[in-house]
C-alpha cells in the first residue's frame, strides 16, 4: 500500500466506494488522515465495513465539513462534468475544495519513481499487462495497476530503480492536476463514453491529459493510424517538450515503431541501429490489434532501457490477458474464446478480424452506434447468438446479412452456439463471446460475464471429453 504522508492529520472527502474508493480510504487512514466517505448505493457503502475506524465517517456529503477538507477524492465512475457534475462535485466547487482522483494522490506520493502510463479506447489493458510482463521477465522491479486489476494506491512501494505501469481511463485522467508520467501513450481513439465527456472533443481532451506536464526527458507515444489519435500527435508535437514518437500499423516510419502487413515489427527509434521482431508467430498476440499493442509495449520497454532481445523474450512468453481474446479451450476442433472485455463494437472488430466460421455470442447493454460498424466482418460469422437488452437492436442490424438466434441469456446462447458449431463441423470454427456491449444489464461486470463463459466451457469440456455429467 502507498502511504500519503502529505495528508497526515488532514481531512478529506471520498465519494464513490468501489475498489478505487476503498483503496483510497485505506491508504489515507494508514497515513493518519481523517476521512469523510459516502456512496449513493447502500451496497457500495457496505464495501467500507472492513476499513471503518474512528477516523472514517460514513456520512452523507451534506454533513461533511467542507470548509475543512483538503480535497474531494472522486471515484472515476462518478460524473465530474457530464451529463452534469454530481452533487458532491458541486458542493466541492462551492466550497473551493479541489476535486481529484486516486491517481493524483498516488503520483503526489511517488514523485521520483518512473511511471509508464497507458490510455486508449481499446487495447490499453493488454498493453499494460504486456509491458508489465516484459519488464518482469527482464528482471526489472515493477508494479502494475490503475484501471486494470489493482488500484494504484494498493500497489506496493518500489525503490527509485523500480517502475509503475498504470492503465488510465479517461475518467481517471479527468481528475489529474499535477500528475506527471515519464512514458505516456495513446494507443487509439474511437467514440466512447460520450455521455460522460459531452462530445468526442471532450473525450479526446480527457485522454490527452496523459501527456500534460511532460518534459524533455519524457516520451509521448501516439498512434498515427486513426484520425483522432493523429490529431493528438500533431497537437502535442507542436506543444510538448517531450520526445513525441509515432506508432503505426499502416505506414512505414522513418522514426518510431511500425508493424508491416506480414507482422514484422520495425524499430526505428534509433534510425542508425534499427531492429526487427517477428510478431506473426506469437500465439498470444494474434491479430493486428495485438500487433499494435505489442508495438507500443516494445517502444515503452526499449525507451525504458531494455534490449531488443529482452523485449522479444517477454513478448513470446506473454500468457495473454483474461477476458481479452482469451483462448479457453478447444473441444472437438472448435475453439472457445472469451472476449468479454469487448464492450463496444470497435473492440469486437479486433476479435472478429482474425477468425472465420465464427459462432458469435453478442449483446448486453448496447453502446451508441450498436454494431453497424461491423458489417465488414459479417461474412466471417457463421451464426450469431444474441443476448441481453441489445438483442432486438442487433437482430435488426443482422437481418438478411447474418443468420441469428435470439437467446436472451448467455447460458442459452452458449448452449446453442456450441451445439451448432459441433453439428456444422466447419474448419477452424470458433465460439466467440465478444459482446460489443457493456455487461450491466445482466452482470455486475465484464469479468463476471467472462468467468461465466469460462465455467460453461470447462463444464462442456468435462462432459464431451471426459464423459462427466
Count of alpha/pi helices: 15
The profile of the biggest β sheet is: 9 strands, mixed
> Percentage of helical residues?
25-40%
Molecular shape:
globular
Order of strands, main sheet, comes to 7-8-6-9-10-11-12-13-14
The second-level CATH architecture of the largest domain is: 3-Layer(aba) Sandwich
Beta-strand percent range: 15-25%
The CATH topology of the largest domain comes to UDP-N-acetylmuramoyl-L-alanine:D-glutamate ligase
Total count of strands: 22
User: How does the helix and strand content classify structurally?
Assistant: alpha/beta
CATH class of the largest domain: Alpha Beta
**Low-pLDDT segments:** none
Look at the structure and name the CATH superfamily of the largest domain. Answer: Mur-like, catalytic domain
Terminal CA distance reads 45 Å
Number of domains: 3
Mean pLDDT: 93
Question: What are the main properties of this structure?
Answer:
469 residues; alpha/beta; UDP-N-acetylmuramoyl-L-alanine:D-glutamate ligase; 9-stranded mixed sheet; 6-stranded mixed sheet; 15 helices; 22 strands; 22% strand
General description of the model:
It is a single chain. The chain contains 15 helices and 22 strands. It is globular and about 70 Å long. It has a 9-stranded mixed beta sheet, with helices on both faces. The protein has 469 residues and is an alpha/beta fold. It folds into 3 domains: 5-100, NAD(P)-binding Rossmann-like Domain (Rossmann fold); 108-317, Mur-like, catalytic domain (UDP-N-acetylmuramoyl-L-alanine:D-glutamate ligase, 3-Layer(aba) Sandwich), CATH 3.40.1190.10; 326-464, Mur ligase, C-terminal domain (Protein-Tyrosine Phosphatase, Chain A, Alpha-Beta Complex). Helix 5 crosses helix 10, helix 5 (124-137) crosses helix 11 and helix 10 (288-304) crosses helix 11 (308-317). The mean pLDDT is 93. Helix 9 links the parallel strand 10 (219-223) and strand 11 (243-248).
Amino acid at each position: 500500500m502507498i502511504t500519503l504522508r502529505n495528508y497526515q492529520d488532514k481531512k478529506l472527502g471520498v465519494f464513490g466506494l468501489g475498489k478505487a474508493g476503498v483503496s483510497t480510504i485505506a491508504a489515507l487512514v494508514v497515513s493518519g488522515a481523517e476521512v469523510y466517505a459516502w456512496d449513493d448505493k447502500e451496497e457500495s457503502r457496505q464495501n467500507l465495513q472492513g476499513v471503518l475506524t474512528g477516523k472514517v465517517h460514513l456520512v452523507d456529503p451534506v454533513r461533511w465539513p467542507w470548509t475543512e477538507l483538503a480535497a474531494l477524492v472522486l471515484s472515476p465512475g462518478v460524473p465530474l462534468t457530464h451529463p452534469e457534475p454530481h452533487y458532491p462535485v458541486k458542493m466541492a466547487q462551492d466550497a473551493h475544495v479541489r476535486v481529484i482522483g486516486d491517481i493524483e494522490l498516488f503520483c503526489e506520493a511517488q514523485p521520483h519513481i518512473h511511471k509508464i502510463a497507458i490510455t486508449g479506447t481499446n487495447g490499453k489493458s493488454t498493453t499494460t499487462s504486456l509491458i508489465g510482463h516484459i519488464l518482469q521477465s527482464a528482471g526489472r522491479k515493477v508494479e502494475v495497476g490503475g484501471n486494470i486489476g489493482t488500484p494504484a494506491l494498493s500497489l506496493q512501494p518500489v525503490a527509485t530503480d523500480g517502475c509503475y505501469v498504470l492503465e488510465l481511463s479517461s475518467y481517471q485522467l479527468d481528475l489529474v492536476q499535477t500528475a506527471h508520467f515519464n512514458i505516456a501513450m495513446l494507443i487509439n481513439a474511437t467514440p466512447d463514453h460520450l455521455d460522460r465527456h459531452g462530445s468526442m472533443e471532450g473525450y479526446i481532451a480527457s485522454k490527452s491529459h496523459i501527456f500534460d506536464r511532460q518534459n524533455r526527458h519524457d516520451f509521448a507515444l501516439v498512434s498515427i493510424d486513426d484520425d483522432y489519435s493523429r490529431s493528438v500527435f500533431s497537437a502535442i508535437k507542436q506543444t510538448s517538450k517531450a520526445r513525441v514518437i509515432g506508432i503505426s500499423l499502416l505506414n512505414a516510419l522513418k522514426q518510431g515503431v511500425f508493424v508491416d502487413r506480414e507482422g514484422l515489427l520495425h524499430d526505428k527509434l534509433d534510425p542508425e541501429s534499427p531492429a526487427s521482431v517477428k510478431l506473426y508467430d506469437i500465439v498470444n498476440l494474434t491479430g493486428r490489434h495485438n500487433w499494435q499493442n505489442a508495438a507500443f509495449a516494445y517502444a515503452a520497454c526499449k525507451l525504458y532501457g531494455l534490449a531488443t532481445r529482452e523485449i522479444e523474450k517477454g513478448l513470446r512468453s506473454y500468457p495473454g490477458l483474461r477476458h481479452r481474446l482469451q483462448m479457453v479451450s478447444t473441444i472437438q476442433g472448435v475453439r472457445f474464446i472469451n472476449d468479454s472485455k469487448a464492450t463496444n463494437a470497435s473492440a469486437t472488430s479486433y476479435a472478429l478480424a482474425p477468425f472465420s466460421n465464427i459462432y458469435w455470442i453478442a449483446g448486453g447493454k448496447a453502446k451508441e452506434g450498436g454494431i453497424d460498424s461491423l458489417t465488414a466482418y459479417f461474412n466471417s460469422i457463421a451464426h450469431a447468438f444474441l443476448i441481453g437488452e441489445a438483442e432486438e437492436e442487433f437482430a435488426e442490424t443482422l437481418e438478411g446479412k447474418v443468420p441469428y438466434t435470439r437467446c436472451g441469456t448467455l447460458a442459452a446462447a452458449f448452449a446453442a452456439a456450441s451445439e451448432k458449431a459441433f453439428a456444422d463441423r466447419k474448419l477452424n470454427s470458433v465460439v466467440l463471446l465478444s459482446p460489443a456491449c457493456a455487461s450491466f444489464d445482466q452482470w455486475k461486470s465484464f469479468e463476471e460475464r467472462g468467468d461465466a463463459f469460462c465455467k460453461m466451457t470447462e463444464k462442456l469440456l468435462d462432459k464431451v471429453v471426459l464423459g462427466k455429467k
